[in-house]
From TrEMBL, chain A:
Record carries keyword Repeat: no
Name of the molecule in the record: Branched-chain amino acid transport system ATP-binding protein
Molecular function per GO: ATP binding; ATP hydrolysis activity
GO cellular component, one term: plasma membrane
Species in which this protein is naturally found: Muricoccus pecuniae
Entry annotated with the keyword Transit peptide: no
Amino acid sequence: MSGPILSVEGLGMRFGGFRALHGVTASFPARMLTSVIGPNGAGKSTFFNLISGAFAPSEGRIAFEGRDITGTPQHRFAALGIAKSFQITNVFPALTALENVRIAAQALVSRHDVWRRRDELPGLAEEARSLLEEVGLTHRAGAPAGSLAHGEQRSLEIAMALASRPRLLLLDEPTAGMSPKETVVAMELIRRLARERTVILVEHKMKLVMGISDRLLVLHHGELLAEGAPEEIRAHPEVRRVYLGERA
Amino acid sequence: MRAVADWFFRHPVLGAGFFILILPFITPYTALAVMILVYGLYALGFNIMYGHVGLLSFGHSALLGGGAYACGIALVHLGLPWGACILAGTLAGTLIAFVMGALAVRTRGIYFAMVTLALSQVAYFGFYQAEPWTGGENGLRGVNLRTLGIPGLSLDFTTPAVRYTVIGLLVWGAVALLARILASPFGAAMLAVRENEARAKACGFDVRLVRLQAMTLSGAFCGLAGALLALHLSIVPIETLHYTTSGVAVMMAILGGSNTFFGPFVGAAVFLFLESVVSTRTEHWPLVVGVVFVLFILLARQGIWGTLVARLR
């Protein structure tokens, strides 16, 4: 597949007088894992919220598979083929892990039907089970999502995002708050998911994504500082100064 | 005991039917049993918003009262047959709920409660002013349904047993319909919105539309309850629209257990039973009901039915 799956042009966001993001133009090739990195306050979360539809941008345009989707309401994104996981864990806490994923899968086919019985919708429970298996949560299927460990909830969120069968998966700091061991497992999972679809990952920890990303985008003070393959980014003098420099 | 309870929880519709069947035999008089049916339905309708969508409405009096007035007006002023009167009440509740919902679903939490309260006050004064149609301050009098014409049959609605049977069957039908709706894909959409709005949106649910649909459904059930209330009382007091009527639904749902399907109905039964027993002894009966309510909030958050469900499961 050639051509970008997602492209942004002159993307900008203002919150009152504060300019969180300005003039970002970039494109994301299909079937690749692209990571968006940058120091604290670089505009990563704003960028994520714009491309995932949480807010409409104050400037610029967003195109998905060649279609302009600027200003499309959040709830339409799943049907378009874009799914996301949140930086702060967001599940349906009182419902079981299985029901969480089943509802996410149901949302794609039936939302307002009051006549049918939902357990008669074909295939949803099976699909939810296989997604739980994919993220390694089969043994927790019957547990309320709120009772799962933090790392398990994050995996559950990924399963819910996958339930809408996205062609583009957006992950906002998917390993935030995970233990080192959980992080390794999660990164392995993300790598595996990226084989079959496009993944855009927003991450604070540069080291973590260097090894698994095909491409990197570096944001700094709300602007695009650099983009390229991991080795190019590693060698980029500006990036070294603003990002790696602060650690050395 | 556990087996009986389990059966009851697994078959809520049959369980509700059993409850409606024995209710007139455990209440001191049939009129109280009818009130429990009507307010039970009202509390269940209210709980669609509170328990299932997670929005506290303080304006449901407009839905019960609107349904009651529409049914009464259809009977008194338009002389429609009884079935059409009940339908008019149901539709009025639905319509009022749709309008309230369209204006209120952008808000949540305390703001939703305030907006719905304000809109129900608009309804109160609207009906209060429309005196030629509603009787204003005196309420709508003369909602007298004496005979029920069913093809091939004519029933005397003034007989307590007939009245209870007819209203009981309608309420049971509504309960069965509600149970079915809660088991539908839309039932899951409501839970998703209640549990986590941001995640529900990311999954693809239009949160405002789900809330509006739920509110409209809630209005249909509360409007039906209002219509039955008007036929039972033969009058629609203006107090039906008063905001305290909205508060009564909140108390019933919480007292019975808003996290269960049948809890609000049980709450309505206990509330009205307490009222009827205590009010014969002291005019300060709300004080006693209030103390019971506070005790449940402090000691058994799940409510009467919710606690029972948790214990027996």
